[in-house]
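Translate sequence into C-alpha cells.
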Amino acid sequence: LKSGFKFKKIEIEDFDDAYVGTGLDDSSWREVRVPHDWGIEGDFSADNDPSESSIIEDGINKPITLTGRTGGLPILGAGVYRKWVRIEESDRVFLEFDGVMWFSRIYVNGNLAGSNHFGYKSFSVDITEHVNFGMDNLIAVYAEVKADCGRWYCGGGIFRNVRLVSKPEGHFA
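Result follows.
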C-alpha cells in the first residue's frame, strides 16, 4: 500500500474517533504516498523539539531545557492517514507495517484493530474480524509523537512500507 493515502496533521489533544470513522469527508485532506514523514515538511526551529533533562555525567544535576536534539524539525504532534481498499475473500488478512513513528493505532472501518508503541519496530495487525470482504474498507492509522521520543531525529508518521497480506488459516506467524 503506497499511494492514495489521505493525510491530516493534528494536535494530539484534537484527536477524535470521527477521524478514523467511515462517515468522515476527507476530501479536503492532502493526498500522500507512504513512506511519509510529516516532520521533514516543516521548518527547522529549536522550539519544535524542547526536551527537559539532567545530564549527571556533564555535571547538570537540575533539569534544563535542551533544544535541537532531534534536528529541530516539527515532529511532535499527531497525524491521521486514511485509505479505502477493496479486500477480497481470504482466511486471514493482515496489515504489516515496517515502521510507524512513535505510538500508533490501526483502525479498520472505524474499529480499533491493533496498536504499536515504538516506531523502529515492524509489526503486524490481524484485521480479519473487521473486514467487509468483497467491498471497500477504510484503513486508518493514527500516529503520535510526543516530546522525548528520541535522542535524534526520529521522523513522524508512516515512515516505512505498509503491506496488505492475505494468509491461509494455517500459517506461520
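Note: The first strand starts at residue 5 and ends at 10.
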